[in-house]
Amino acid sequence: MLDGIFCRALGDELNKLSGAKIEKIHHISNKELVFELFGGERTTLLISALPSAPRICFIKEYDRPQNPTMLCMLFRKHLSGGRIVNVCALQDERIIKFTFVATDELGHPEEKHLYIELMGKYSNCILCSGDDRILGAFSVSDITDKRCIMSGARYEPPEKQNKFPPFSVTKEQFLLYAQQNSHRAADDFLLSSFLGFSPVTAREVSFKATGETDALLLSADLNRLWEEFEKLLDSVRNRTVTPCIAANGKAFSYTALCQYGEEYKQISSLTQLLGEFYAEKASVAEIKQLSYDISRVLSTVKNRLEKKLYSQKTELSDCAKKDIYRNRGDIITANIYRIPSGASSVTAMDYTTGEQVTIPLDTRLTAARNAQRLYAKYAKLKRAEEHLVGLIASGEQELAYVRTVEDALSRARTRKELDEIRLELGEVGYMSAPATKKGSKKTPAGQPLVFTTTDGMRVLVGRNNRQNDSLTGNADKNDIWFHVKNFPGSHVILCTEGEEPTDRDYTQAAMLAAYHSSVRGASNAEVDYTRVRYVKKPSGSKPGYVTYDKYYTAIVDGIMPKL
Predict the structure, then answer these.
(1) Can you give the CATH number for the domain in which 9 is found?
(2) How far is the C-alpha of 478 from the C-alpha of 499, rounded, in Å?
(3) Would the pTM of this model clear 0.85, i.e. be above it?
């Protein structure tokens, strides 16, 4: 889809940016760069080298990082305040080249090049000097690789494939190549013989020429195939391409896609096409990657806690033997008068069971010292039991907290939500906290989800533990608080504004609490609810943890209510 010919057309379209000034630069992820441009009007250009969504397109909104990365500072140093003087694609390559003129430290104008390689998993963005010496890149490689991409090295495009350049081939050459490959399918011939073709475009040319996407050259009208081939290239030469997305949403091209048999969606420009096609895909891929990093940390913490709790509970079960030692000490003490010095055991009545028992003794100790030794073991196990009970309770509470974060992570759909979860984990010490400027205020919790019940009452739903704390802590004491019973989930506030909610208000708020929890989709989910005044947050507790009393329990389905 995003082939060399597409990139040629894209470069021609982007060349309209010539003369635009770079006002701001942001490195919004490790593979994405944003330029805020002014060239008569203000525009925001996204350059993405994400493997699953490489693209150059215009965007309206984006999340600005609080602190610039080292790579961002490098781009700002060389390009801030500069102007775009030319944009083009390298011949038959999936590489867009931006040429800038910016001033150096002394104020002298200096040419810089930016190579954006839109090549799937090999996508990259490489900043070079005017003589193509590399200054920085999203991804680097050393001299042992086929291409050396590192600071100071000369930029070299990828090695060309052994194919024919499509824009310089003549009709006679095309027909000769086709006759020499007559045993092959038309789309395979185009794909393997000419640079710049993608499978989608090759199939489209075949379909328009033969009515089939995989017709054999033996049965095809080669002159007709040439006409469609030339028509495609002419649309790029003359800048009359037809950007479109297939009706099934699985393919795009710079030419009308008829091979899928349904009406295609025509787009006004190639940049808009890339923006629309990859927007959701890129978002899903980014969320998946960011959530994976957080999930891995949570999994490590959870495994550690579970192993620790298992060990502590095993040790606690051993503490149950403490009463045996105390009982044996009591028996020895009761029979101390008849135990001779140096005895290896004593047989006496166990008054708790009424049976005769034999207790081994240390021959080196007196009977009294043997009893004291048993009492000491009892006291040690009792202290350990008391300590372990507290440790286990604390560990189980921490494990429950980790599960609440996992639940919030499973429902996160935006980068902002993930950043907030990452910030929360940094605050509790599970991850390294994001760097903040000295003296800066603590980052406030994000905004909760807002719903309105059928009867007109507002319902607020926290997306994560930080929002849960903020939501519940700032709610009116007469508002109604909801939470799924005994499972991780969002805090939900039904805002009463001094009025008594209807039964439908209660039911819909309870359903929202069940839906935004780990029991989403369950039938007969239990949801506790009470006035906010009865919800307390213990001092020093983990984010999102509260206690409550004087509550009721509703049984609802964990589905999204019809509001």
Answers:
(1) 2.30.310.10
(2) 9
(3) no
Please say which residue of 268, 286, 309 terminates a domain: 268
Pair 363, 461 in one domain: no
Domain count across the chain: 4
C-alpha distances (whole Å) from 420 to each of 79, 105, 226, 514 are 31, 38, 56, 22
CA atoms within 13 A on the CB side of 410: 16
Answer yes or no: is 232 within a domain: yes
In terms of Cβ atoms closer than 10 Å to its own Cβ (0-12, 13-18, 19+), residue 353 is exposed
Q: Is residue 366 part of a domain?
A: yes
Residue 29's domain comprises 4-137
8-state DSSP, 236: H
Distance, CA of 356 to CA of 353 (rounded, Å):
9
For every one of its 563 residues, what pLDDT tens digit does the chain have, with 9 covering 90 and above? 788 999 999 999 999 999 999 999 999 888 899 999 998 889 999 999 988 889 999 988 888 888 889 999 999 999 999 999 999 999 889 999 999 999 888 788 999 999 999 998 899 999 999 999 999 999 888 765 678 888 999 999 988 888 999 999 999 999 999 999 888 999 999 999 999 999 999 999 999 999 888 889 988 899 999 999 999 999 999 999 999 988 777 889 999 888 887 778 888 899 999 988 887 676 777 778 778 889 999 999 999 999 999 999 999 998 988 999 999 999 999 999 989 988 999 999 998 888 999 999 999 999 999 999 999 999 999 999 999 999 999 999 999 999 999 999 998 888 888 889 999 998 888 987 665 555 556 778 889 999 999 999 999 999 999 999 999 999 999 999 999 999 999 999 999 999 999 999 999 999 999 999 999 999 999 999 999 999 999 998 999 999 999 999 999 999 999 88
